[in-house]
Amino acid sequence: MVNDSFRLVGSEYRIHQPQPKKQSLRQRLKGLPLLSMTIFLFIVLGCIFAGQLANHDPTDFYLQNLNEAPGKEFFFGTDSLGRDIYSMIWYGGRISLTIGLLGTAIIAVIGILWGCISGTASERVDSIMMRITEICGSIPSLLFVLILSAAFQANDILSLSIVIGVTGWFGLARIVRSEVRQIRNSEYVLYARCCNGSFLHVTIQHLIPNFLSPVMFALVSSIGSCITLESSLSFLGLGLPISSISWGSMLSLANRALLSNTWWVIVFPGLFLVVTLMCLTNIGSFFRKSANRKPSNL
Amino acid sequence: MKKFFAWFLSAALCVSLCACSAPTSETSTANAETSKSEDLSNTLVYAGESESTINPLLNNHEELPDLIFSGLMKYDANGQPVPDLAESYDFDESTLTYTFHLRQDVLWHDGEPFDAEDVVFTYEALTSDKTLSSSITSNYEDIRTIDSPDAYTVVFTLDQYSAAILDYFTMGILPEHLLRGEDLNTCAFNQAPIGTGRYRFVEWDSAGGMIKLERNTDYYGKVPNIERIIYRTVSDETAKATMLRSGEADLAWLNANYAHQFEGDEAYRSWDFSTADYRGVAMDMSSDFWAQNADSIGVLNYALDKQAIIDSVLNGQGEIAYSPIQLNPLGSNPDADLYPYDLQRFAQEMEALGWVMGSDGLYERNGQTFHFTVQTREYEEERVDIANLVSSMLRKAGVDMEVVLVTSFDWNAGYDGFLAGYATQFDPDMIYSQFVSNASGNTMHYSNAEVDRLLNEGRHTQSPDQRKEIYGQFEEVYAQAPGILLVAYLDGNYVGISGVDGLDTTRVLEHHSVGVMWNIEEWTINR
């Protein structure tokens, strides 16, 4: 409204419009584990596009090129039967990463559900459920996996992931449960329950979004532990058959390579495995730090 | 199988977890004591195959029975039978009677005297014990009667002349006084054997995987120089090579690639024996697949580049195999070498047999894909490698051979074949029990009327020239309708520490390069 009787005066009158401060890309990326993320992304992309990257058939035996050192044709060399390590790495990574992700998905589903039920249930049910996870969690996971894989003949990707997943969720369930215990009596949770919100509704709408960031680090690091378990199993000759290449089954050729002094057969798959695990650990610890730093959003 | 191994590992983990909490002082002092009492300077530690029983009747292709037991005859350096427990023997051609005059100075390892009763007992078990699970009983079919007119004479009467029977009289003799009335297949004797041989059995430490032997100072022949043999039961080839490297073993049979790694190292010595040992894919002719497709085994040879397999897996130390008795003096008929490596020829022959290439790149016939399964023991690396290469070559040619790795062979699981090894290092009649229909060692159920006829004729013919001709015919007949996809003959590479001496490479070794200890009494070890 403009009124001539009044005039607003001031030295430099301006309407104050607070501009949403645009963060530069640099600022937004600040603190993120950039190097780890880039390397991990690179490895994942490499495995996805294994068909384009590989320059040889990973399952074929190049009998004219036995035990060849890394070179122009075979970038990472060949093993004692002329298999191309470079091509095997990308194809093998597919299986290793798939098992990591599938195993983690199973861990996530079981762990989160168990933790939510336990966290919202009565004292007695809660303590029974937690004792179960503690008892099962006290069995060394390698032993547990061995017993299960013997009982169920786990020798394909899916069944191996299930075995690894089923034995790996105990830690996650405990974390989820303690998070849920903290927020289960918050007003919005109580309100949702008063309005007859079902358990699933409450879990999905209210609980999970609120504890996701604190458990994120547990999830990311369990990808790494799933990959490690698969590698150990395949290394022992109990995981995948030799015909399906994974980083673990490639490493199972290691003691043979040691005897024949072909270091590249051991070093390259080992390097990829270690680098992937380090990246995952680094990303996981970033999530843990940022969850600890942020104030509670309640 | 794999399942068993996994259970075993889990059990081992459990045990080791318990062991961690148990007080360890007792075991460590016990170990110290045993190591003190054992002077290892004149002891040979041999990394050998894994064993479950030591009984010459049941395990006649293994090293230990030959050390602990001895037979009426034994093989000399050239593989010819010469008297051993017998001082001499007579053969009466008109009555087909062998009379053995036994040594009178022989004692069993438990001190009892050896006599004709023991010989009669052993050969009666071989010829008339129907429950005996031995693969070689077919070799003794021609024996009609066994008599002992006195305590040191044994008389065998045959139904008809048998060319290799003197070879078969090398069978180790079992002690009658310990085994009368026992079940030879399962008795405890098989794990604590008592023989008349050059070494006596001391202890079987199954947890530690070793069998301890001590030289038999009462031996009737030359008493061995080496006082003790510790036989480590390891089957894994990598483990054997590692043990040799780390000084845990003094002698081992290694595959060609591993043996090559020790060449030029002054601390080690190697001996290259020739063997009659071949590798091939033996098909179970009674399986559903081969019962219908037995005509299509030989043709697979065209698709195999056997030389490439020899050059890679065997490090070039081998020979292309075309006949199961190729390296036998009476075998090696070049006309039996029917199948060169020729993929074009393969395609033609497959077409002639009625196989049609399907859209998935595999041959089909009568609605059936050319797919079969082959079991291989996972610790036998050289066989696993051969199986994988054969499978990859066949796959490119349009045949799917699926390789299944097992921890021990399972004959009832329905596999269509296995990665086999056999050897015919002495008389060619050794293949009789393996190829004649329903013979004792014919585990793959091979049956071919012409093969039966020729092998019977070869067994019962006296003249070496005639026999060579007969076995040559057998090789041709067999090559046309084989039950084994033959790949290669291997050399026997033994590697030991440089202090081991006395191994004699004159002898052609058998399957798994067994027989290296044929002259062990001459060996010495110097650490």
Describe the protein.
The complex is a heterodimer of chains A (298) and B (527). With 298 residues, chain A is mainly α. Helix content of chain A is 67%, strand content 0%. Chain A has 13 helices and no strands. Chain A has helices spanning 25-29, 34-48, 50-53, 85-120, 123-138, 141-152, 157-166, 170-183, 187-194, 199-235, 247-251, 254-259, 263-293. In chain A, helix 4 runs antiparallel to helix 5, helix 4 (85-120) packs antiparallel against helix 10 (199-235) and helix 8 (170-183) runs antiparallel to helix 10 (199-235). The mean pLDDT of chain A is 86. Chain B is of the alpha+beta class and 527 residues long. Chain B is 28% helix and 24% strand. Chain B is built from 15 helices and 22 strands. In chain B, strands 1, 8, 9, 10, 11, 12, 13, 17, 18, 19 and 20 form an eleven-stranded mixed β-sheet that branches. In chain B, helix 14 runs antiparallel to helix 15 (464-480). The longest helix of chain B has 20 residues, at 2-21. Chain B is globular and about 75 Å long. Chain A binds chain B through residues 59-61, 63, 66, 80-82, 140, 142-143, 146-147, 149-150, 153, 155, 236-238, 241-243, 255-256, 259-261, and chain B through 2-3, 5-7, 9-10, 13-14, 17, 238, 241-242, 245, 257-258, 261, 305, 308-309, 311-313, 378, 381, 384-385, 388-389, 392, 403, 405.
Low-confidence stretches of chain A: none
The largest interface is: A-B, 28 and 32 residues
Strand coverage percent of chain A: under 5%
Shape, principal axes of CA atoms of chain A: flat
Most strands sheet of chain B: 11 strands, mixed
Fraction of residues in H or I helices of chain A: 55-70%
As a whole number of angstroms, the C-alpha radius of gyration of chain B is 24 Å
